[in-house]
Amino acid sequence: MAERIFAGKIALAGNPNVGKSTVFNALTHLHQHTGNWTGKTITCANGIVRWNGKTFCLVDLPGTYALHSHVAEEDAAREFLQSNTADCIIIVVDATCLERNLIFTLQILSMTQRAVLCLNLMDEARKKSISIDVPALEKRLGIPVVPCTAATGKGLDHLMETVETLVENNSIKTTDQKNVTEFPPLSSFVHAAEQIAVETVTVDARIPDRDRKIDAILTSRRYGIPIMLALIALVFFLTITGANVPSEWLSYLLFACAQPLNDLITWLGAPEWLRAMLIDGGWNVLASVVSVMLPPMAIFFPLFTCLEDIGYLPRIAFNLDHVFCKARTCGKQVLTLCMGLGCNAAGVVGCRIIDSERDRMIAILTNTMVPCNGRFPAIISLITLFIVGTTQSSAKTFLLAAISLTCVVIVGVFMTLVASWLLSKTILKGMPSAFFLELPPYRRPQVGKIIVRSLRDRTMFVLLRAVCVAAPAGLLIWCIGNIQVGSDTLLTIFAGALDPFARYIGLDGMILLAFILGFPANEIVIPLVLMGYLSSGTLVEINQLSDLAVLLAQNGWTSVTAVCFILFSLFHWPCSTTCLTIRKETGSTKWMLIGMILPTLFGVTLCFIVHSISVLL
Ligand SMILES: Nc1nc2c(ncn2[C@@H]2O[C@H](COP(=O)(O)OP(=O)(O)OP(=O)(O)O)[C@@H](O)[C@H]2O)c(=O)[nH]1
Ligand SMILES: [Mg+2]
């Protein structure tokens, strides 16, 4: 039914990282994620293009190297193309490496001629002094060729005009070749692609290869890892420095709203218990989550996306590949860990880029050992208070905090390696698969788009999720903090029951209870601890880190408690969204449970060791 209203269905196909999603976004005005590395898109996305009074359905397919290939992430694209449901296929190719892209193009053309070649990245080709004889290419391929620069939208109108003509002209033949086994051998496509490239592409050989020179430093054995660590520390330094003041402002502003809201609820005639529950419970937790989380996320995500757009993420994977191979797992896991830094659920889904089933499972089960953004703010606060040991806002404090945070991430990655090695020696036996990692060209980041995209799609998404979870969790903890059983509240009874065990691992009952109640979202753990410490079950206004320091010290916190908290925050069961995502991605509750138990065992063991050493000392 829905199909009938469209003038045609158009598919965007091509090799990975050639700009398909960028074309898709420009034509549909949607916001499909783009990124300068292969495998950014892993599922098909649909959008609508309005052109010349007509409406077309546009499908963005994951990148595919060849229709022969058997990579899981490419299945969706292959199945779609072989189903022959598109009225026209826009084959997007990278003008800077046409020959390689032509292999896939020729495979598509052996199935259908209802295609247009979108010769994308023409700006980069021009910079590299690559020129392409477009009429000759059209003649050789037998389909229209449209040069484009999708990043600026140049050429896309012409592309749509060509597509429209093609869709209207239904007579163009399509070969009913649905089974890849019927294809001629890959070598024949490779040979033909080489021939066509020789005839149509000219390159000025005098232009030096800038990317190779940069890679000689950034991916070298000697400098690669130190530069990588310095860059990560720089991102954390900028995040911590920039987030400090806005966090305080937001906190003042949001807690200041509590009084008028209080008055409003009283004026509406609500009973006291309802007022207390909504304001002292829901609003105050919400205010604290937003003020603690929003500023660092609003800085971290754009900076991280910038590294992604420049093309640095695959270089990180390249630098760490040999380390991951030693742990008997695959270097592509590093890319999924990078995705996990933002949100572990996204990291788990991102594991689809790993081809081998065994390696993918290892990557999924260990993904939560890098801290997601829900855990960063609490870790940063505790580092500043207990490890750096001062709340004074100076460059030195921020630098020390950034270096400590980098060390926390290193611990996370190290334990990921340990866990991967253990898994590959036990329940996921085997050797790491060989894989093909493409280092994309360095590209200038599109700063404006990065800011909009990371604020809207990432920051707001994570924040909204936290808010949706924080307010109800605040209500719940208020309730258990105020329901009396005998002379104690439910909160003190639960925390008291957990206390003996928690003390063994350097925590206390309230902290452990907060981790348990924080299952829906990690970002609410610290607010829950604070609420628990206040006998009224009400969250007080924490405007400054020094207020937090006083409250924690009053409840017996030392630097050992902070270290154990950070370790347990790094290694414990994933949040509910990530657990559900693990179950969905592995198709099994058993693996989800392993994904919960494994990091928790690590956390308990490490905290126990740290606590025991501190007692001995
Ligand atoms: N300079 C330049 N960069 C472009 C152009 N088109 C896309 N890009 C950049 O190329 C990178 C890859 O773009 P995507 O649209 O994610 O590529 P894709 O083909 O969808 O990639 P996969 O989903 O991994 O297959 C991004 O960093 C884009 O900003 C262009 O015409 N010029
Ligand atoms: Mg894409």
What are the SSEs and their pairings?
Layout: E1 8-14, H1 20-28, E2 45-51, E3 54-60, H2 75-82, E4 88-94, H3 98-109, E5 115-120, H4 122-127, E6 130-132, H5 134-141, E7 145-147, H6 156-168, H7 186-200, E8 201-203, H8 210-218, H9 224-256, H10 258-267, H11 272-310, H12 313-326, H13 333-342, H14 344-350, H15 357-366, H16 376-388, H17 395-425, H18 447-482, E9 484-485, E10 488-489, H19 490-504, H20 509-517, H21 525-533, H22 545-554, H23 559-570, H24 576-586, H25 589-616
Parallel strand pairs: 1-3, 1-4, 4-5, 5-7
Antiparallel strand pairs: 2-3, 6-8, 9-10
Helix pairs in contact: 3-7, 9-11, 9-17, 10-11, 11-18, 12-13, 13-14, 14-24, 15-17, 16-17, 16-23, 19-20, 20-21, 23-25, 24-25
The site of magnesium ion has 4 residues, from α1.
Mean pLDDT: 86
Radius of gyration, in Å, reads 27 Å
Structural class: alpha/beta
- Into which percent range does the helicity of residues fall? 55-70%
- Please tally the helical runs, counting DSSP H or I stretches of 4 or more residues: 25
Low-confidence stretches: none
Number of strands: 10
Strand content: 5-15%
Widest sheet, order of strands: 2-3-1-4-5-7
Largest beta-sheet details: 6 strands, mixed
Taken together, the total number of domains comes to 2
How would the global form be characterised? Answer: elongated
Give a list of the ligands: guanosine-5'-triphosphate, magnesium ion
Q: Alpha-carbon distance between the termini?
A: 73 Å
